[in-house]
Amino acid sequence: MIQTINLSLPVDLAQKIDQEIKKEGYVSRSEFFRTLVRFYFLLGAEEFLVPFRKKPLTEIKKALDQEGHPPAFVKSVVAGFKKSSLYQ
Asked: Which of 28, 34, 62, 66 sits a CA distance of 20 to 30 A from 42?
């Protein structure tokens, strides 16, 4: 049995993923993400994920702005962090 999971990404990140898929010869985005998930479970979270380091929201906003993300995206990211338990 297969279950579908939908994932929304900013356009620039999706384009980078598509470039990687082409470069590495993945058949599809689904296969790319299945591979990432397999490595996560194979290696474990400690080896696979970068630990989160809390930064001031102004610093996060400035970095996202400098990277050229759309203002609406930057606003939504900052608003999301404000609601998270890490920033309350």
From this structure: 28
18's CB contacts (< 8 A; 6+ apart) are 29
Total count of domains within the chain: 2
pLDDT by residue (tens digit) across 36-58? 999 888 888 777 777 778 899 99
Cα→Cα distances 10→14, 25, 27, 58, 86, Å: 6, 22, 21, 20, 23
- 1 inside domain: no
Domain range for 20: 11-48
Residue with tokens 């702005």: 65
- 38 & 63 share domain: no
In this prediction the pTM is: 0.55
Band (72; pLDDT cuts 50, 70, 90): very high
